[in-house]
């Protein structure tokens, strides 16, 4: 598959399938204007204000976020930002809980488990100035708690063109069986088919959610709510098929044997050095791969399900910039944080950010940037009316919210059965029991 790099204009038409309605940026609230260095005109320009920020992501995203912070503080020397962003392999939710426990909960947060922290009173409703900047900010109980940083990312196979050519693979798979046939060809050619960042807990969600969406969530978006009510079980045919397919990737030798010690940020190197032929991940990896080896030729495609359907993570959810309740009650902090958010989503700065992470813009103002062939393939899939867009099991909210403790617990359970090589319905019975226990504990804590 050969594509020429072209300029991508994410207009109303090109991103309609992504539910991103892009139009001219709305006006800020009356009575607040910005001076040349970004500070509000009703605040002294030289008044020093400090606030903390907490974010996460792959290396490319972290660097792009750090660049945004550096650019803002250079333009606004009176505003000091303490960047607390997570940098290790600890799960982001656990990291945020730890920060909250020791009194270091960030003032500005890249929020992922929104319902948990909103119900705990840790984050506040967004200022209208933030909402004026973004096209689609989902609500929780009719309230806005997050401003989406980028649109939902689809996961897919990032593959080495050379490895595919050497193995005799000449076309994308049209069915899941064809995908498995490609894995056999790669394995027979002498290369490990798939690299996997199993050292980082969040990486487990890529494949696990792919199969959960294929066999459960795309066909029944209310599955989580039914599970909480006891109307469905992880031992049902859909979830069992999902985890059987997931497990098969490992037991058939398609995934590198050293997955437990491979970090997410090592997978790009595994790919470009020829130690593995493929990586299942999102478009944020494109820049990281190109930086590792500018001459490396690679492609991207979504993995079809057993019915030949293309199902991807592509529905907006409750993730994005959030402001802590404490910071929102501090007028100076709230004003300074709002200036940063306005700066972050400004056309010049936000264009740099989404280009660095191969992101899908969420602003009302149209953003354009030069996209790679791989990113153009992503957009082609996302704009295809036949593509089915779902959410990952941890992304639902309201009655369909997954118990937040359950996600990482289940990822660790999957590691257990892969290590022991004894996957069975008994593990899925444990998943039911843990879900029910978490729901009960969360209800008691309210």
From TrEMBL:
Keyword Transport assigned: yes
GO cellular component: ATP-binding cassette (ABC) transporter complex, substrate-binding subunit-containing
Keywords tagged on the record: Signal, Transport
Signal peptide boundaries: 1-24
GO molecular function, one term: maltose binding
Recorded superkingdom: Bacteria
Alphabetical list of InterPro entries matching this protein: SBP (IPR006059)
A Gene Ontology BP annotation from the UniProt entry: maltose transport
Pfam families per record: SBP_bac_1 (PF01547)
Family: Belongs to the bacterial solute-binding protein 1 family.
Stated name of the protein: Raffinose/stachyose/melibiose transport system substrate-binding protein
């Amino acid at each position: 598959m050969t594509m020429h790099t072209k300029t991508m204009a994410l207009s109303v038409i090109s991103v309609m399938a992504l539910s991103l309605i892009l139009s001219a940026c709305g006006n800020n609230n009356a009575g607040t204007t910005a001076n040349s260095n970004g500070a509000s005109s009703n605040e002294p320009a030289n008044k020093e204000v400090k606030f903390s920020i907490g974010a996460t992501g792959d290396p490319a995203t972290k660097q792009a976020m750090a660049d945004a912070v550096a650019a803002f503080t250079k333009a606004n020397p009176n505003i000091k930002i303490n960047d607390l962003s997570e940098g290790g392999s600890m799960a982001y939710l656990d990291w945020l809980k730890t920060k909250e426990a020791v009194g270091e909960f960030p003032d500005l947060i890249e929020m992922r488990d929104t319902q948990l922290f909103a119900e705990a009173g840790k984050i506040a409703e967004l200022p209208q100035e933030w909402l004026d900047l973004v096209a689609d900010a989902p609500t929780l109980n009719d309230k806005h708690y997050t401003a989406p940083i980028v649109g939902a990312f689809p996961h897919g196979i990032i593959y080495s063109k050379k490895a595919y050519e050497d193995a005799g693979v000449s076309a994308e798979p049209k069915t899941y069986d064809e995908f498995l046939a490609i894995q056999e060809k790669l394995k027979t050619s002498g290369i490990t088919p798939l690299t996997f960042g199993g050292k980082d807990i969040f990486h487990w969600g890529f494949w696990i959610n792919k199969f959960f969406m294929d066999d459960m969530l795309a066909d029944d978006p209310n599955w989580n709510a039914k599970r909480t009510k006891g109307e469905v079980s992880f031992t049902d045919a859909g979830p069992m098929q999902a985890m059987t397919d997931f497990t098969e990737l490992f037991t058939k030798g398609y995934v590198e044997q050293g997955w437990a010690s491979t970090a997410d940020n090592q997978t790009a190197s595994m790919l470009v050095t020829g130690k593995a032929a493929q990586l299942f991940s999102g478009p944020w990896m494109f820049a990281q791969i190109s930086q590792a080896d500018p001459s490396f030729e690679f492609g991207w495609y979504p993995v079809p399900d057993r019915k030949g359907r293309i199902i991807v993570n592509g529905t907006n959810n409750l993730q994005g910039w959030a402001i802590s309740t404490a910071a929102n009650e501090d007028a100076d902090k709230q004003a300074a944080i709002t200036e940063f958010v306005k700066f972050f989503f400004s056309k010049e700065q936000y264009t740099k950010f989404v280009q660095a992470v191969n992101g899908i813009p969420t602003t009302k103002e149209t953003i354009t940037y030069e996209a790679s062939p791989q990113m153009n393939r992503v957009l082609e899939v996302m704009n295809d009316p036949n593509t089915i867009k779902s959410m990952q099991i941890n992304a639902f909210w309201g009655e369909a919210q997954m118990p937040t403790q359950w996600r990482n617990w289940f990822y660790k359970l999957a590691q257990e059965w892969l290590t022991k090589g004894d996957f069975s319905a008994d593990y899925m019975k444990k998943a039911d029991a843990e879900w029910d226990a978490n729901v009960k504990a969360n209800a008691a804590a309210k």
